């Protein structure tokens, strides 16, 4: 599923304002337009052994799913196995929805899209099992439940508003553009190159 919003800091979410939505015609790696030039310039294979690509990682993979579902079994155990028997560094864990979006805005290499649970499963946002996920390095804040946007008053409210955004007029009118990137004619070939949408 796509990141559909770009407003994770306002007190209220105005779904009649197109400015709160992500531009669904662009891959997540260039959702921040400042990254487009760098992505274009880095369209290459450093080894010369495979076809050129814009992004060396992928918008959806098993590790990304485990990243988001770290608080929910069996994904917790799978995450620990992937990280050689321990939780990953706290700063790399999914600990905040606003921080996860901000990471997409600051780093064109982080191209994870969302998973369906963001639209129906509030429990994945809660550390119900009390896993010790460590502390963030800068703030020393303990990682527990996922930090929600200010416009969400609870996990259930986040899911409700996020799903409402997914079903909004704006997304209904533009979702096909994202589908073209992920499942359609812009996923390969010249159209993908032009759309800055070539993955390793």
Question: How does this structure look, described?
Answer:
Residues 1-200 form the BEACH domain. Keywords: WD repeat. With 200 residues, the protein is mainly alpha-helical. The protein has a single domain (18-127, 138-195), classed as Neurobeachin, Chain: A, domain 1. The chain is 32% helix and 0% strand. The protein has 7 helices and no strands. It has helices at 36-41, 62-68, 75-82, 97-106, 155-166, 169-182, 189-194. α2 crosses α3 (75-82). The mean pLDDT is 93.
Which helices and strands occur, and which strands form pairs?
Elements: H1 36-41, H2 62-68, H3 75-82, H4 97-106, H5 155-166, H6 169-182, H7 189-194
Helix pairs in contact: 2-3
Short description:
This protein is mainly α and 200 residues long. The chain has a single domain, classed as BEACH domain (Neurobeachin, Chain: A, domain 1), CATH 1.10.1540.
- In CATH, what is the homologous superfamily? BEACH domain
Rg from alpha-carbon coordinates: 17 Å
For the report, how would you describe the main beta sheet?
none
CATH class: Mainly Alpha
Oligomeric status: single chain
What is the correct CATH architecture?
A: Orthogonal Bundle
> How large a portion of the residues is in β-strands, by DSSP E?
under 5%
Number of structurally distinct domains: 1
Average pLDDT reading: 93
Instruction: Identify low-pLDDT runs.
Output: none
Q: Which series of helices and strands comes N to C?
A: HHHHHHH
Q: Fill in the CATH topology.
A: Neurobeachin, Chain: A, domain 1
**Whole-Å distance between the termini?**
20 Å
Shape assignment: globular
Query: How many individual helices?
Result: 7
Give the tally of β-strands: 0
Helix percentage range: 25-40%
Given helix and strand content, the structural type is mainly alpha
GO molecular function, one term: protein kinase binding
Protein name: NBEL2 protein
Organism: Balaeniceps rex (Shoebill)
Domain BEACH: 1-200
């Amino acid at each position: 599923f796509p990141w559909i919003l770009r407003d994770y800091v306002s007190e209220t979410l105005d779904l009649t304002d197109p400015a709160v939505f992500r531009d669904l015609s662009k891959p997540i790696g260039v959702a921040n337009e400042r990254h487009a030039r760098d992505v274009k310039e880095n369209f290459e294979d450093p080894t010369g052994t495979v076809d050129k690509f814009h992004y060396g990682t992928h918008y959806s993979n098993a590790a990304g799913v485990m990243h988001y579902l770290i608080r929910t079994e069996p994904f917790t155990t799978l995450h620990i196995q992937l990280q050689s028997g321990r939780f990953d560094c706290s700063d790399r864990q999914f600990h905040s929805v606003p921080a996860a979006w901000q990471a997409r805005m600051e780093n064109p290499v982080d191209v994870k899209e969302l998973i369906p649970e963001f639209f129906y499963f509030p429990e994945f946002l809660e550390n119900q099992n009390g896993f010790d996920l460590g502390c963030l390095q800068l703030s020393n804040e303990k990682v527990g439940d996922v930090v929600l946007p200010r416009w969400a008053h609870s996990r259930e409210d986040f899911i409700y508003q996020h799903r409402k955004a997914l079903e909004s007029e704006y997304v209904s009118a533009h979702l096909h553009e994202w589908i073209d990137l992920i499942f359609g004619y812009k996923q390969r070939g010249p159209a993908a190159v032009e759309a800055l949408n070539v993955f390793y």
